[in-house]
Amino acid sequence: MPTPLANRTAVVTGASSGIGAAVARALSAAGARVALVARSPAALDETAATLPGESLCLPADVSDDAQVAAAVDRVEATWGVPDLVVTSAGVCDPATLAELTPGSWRHTLDVNLSGTFYVAREAALRMRRAGVPGDIVTIGSELSVIGMAGYTAYCASKAGVLGLTRALAAELAPDVRVNAVCPGPVDTPMLAAEFAAGGDPRAAYEETLARVPLRRLGTADEVAAAVLYLVAPTTYATGTALHLDGGTTSV
Q1: Which residues form a coiled coil (predicted)?
Q2: Quick check: 169 and 238 in contact, CB under 8 A?
Q3: Sign of torsion, CA 206 211 216 218?
Q4: Closest CA to 227 of 84, 127, 55, 111
Q5: At 235, which helix (H) or strand (E)?
Q6: pLDDT recorded at residue 133
Q7: What is d(CA 237, CA 222) in angstroms, rounded to the nearest whole number?
Q8: Which residues are catalytic?
Q9: How far apart are CA 47 and CA 17, in angstroms?
Q10: Range of weakest confidence among 146-155, 156-165, 197-206
């Protein structure tokens, strides 16, 4: 099998399940060494067991900059400077404005936005110091560009991810490319938990499908394929937001 990412060292956050785990598998299958970052050691071990190539499990909370720095230190000490980063760690806790507490607001931004910044910054500065070209792919959302009731904190955090992506792309060019994938509703444990939180998962599922022009959920593997496209050496893109949303942002 071809290994287009042979000799590349990847860091994937949120690698314990869903999109992050799918991205880790895709990068590993393409030949990359993959460092898996998430909070649960047991879940990371489960993901690692599904990878065909080398992996490194690094339990860490991306909202803690010191833990992020320590994790990237481990990667560099083990394999060298990482040259491929995918920031998939994220949380979503829907709440009306009246129910949205300052603590929940801070937690969402700490993980989704600050966590993306900490990981991207650690990797990018090391690439620059070492003169290593590379790729950073952030995971935004359809809600990076559209609003949705009950998702104030999530919308704000993901809009911030898109702004961060574009600013980093401008500053790090031409050696480090920074792009975003913005999925719509994707069939993951996080989305299933959102459906269940409302008390009627089936109704929530049907309501979601009704607003997607393609009338289906996306898959984590489809998002992983988009990441592979963006990190291919022949892809002429930086500062790009690839909307993989079944058409939700086109109507």
Answers
A1: none
A2: yes
A3: negative
A4: 84
A5: none
A6: 97
A7: 19
A8: 154
A9: 7
A10: 197-206
d(CA 211, CA 206): 9
Token pair listed for 94: 């829907």
Retrieve residue 101's tokens. 């507490």
Q: Indicate the average pLDDT of the chain.
A: 97
CB 152 within 8 A of CB 97: yes
E-assigned strands of the chain?
9-13, 33-38, 55-59, 84-87, 134-139, 176-183, 241-244
How far apart CA 31 and CA 153 sit, in angstroms, is 37
Q: pLDDT band at 32, cuts 50/70/90?
A: very high
Structure tokens at 61: 């909370």
Per-residue tokens: 120: 């991207």
> How, if at all, do strands 55-59 and 84-87 pair?
unpaired
Both tokens of 236, joined, read 């002429």
CATH 3.40.50.720 fits 9-183+219-243, yes or no: yes
Structure tokens at 112: 């989704």
Put simply, whether the predicted model's pTM sits higher than 0.90 gets the answer: yes
Instruction: State the Cα–Cα distance between residues 104 and 95, nearest whole angstrom.
Output: 9
Q: Looking at the predicted structure, is the pLDDT value of residue 23 above 80?
A: yes
pLDDT, mean of residues 213-234: 97
| Selection from 244, 228, 205 nearest residue 27 by Cα | 228
Query: Which of 181, 192, 186 lies closest to 227 in space, CA to CA?
Result: 181
Check: CB of residue 139 under 8 Å from CB of residue 119: no
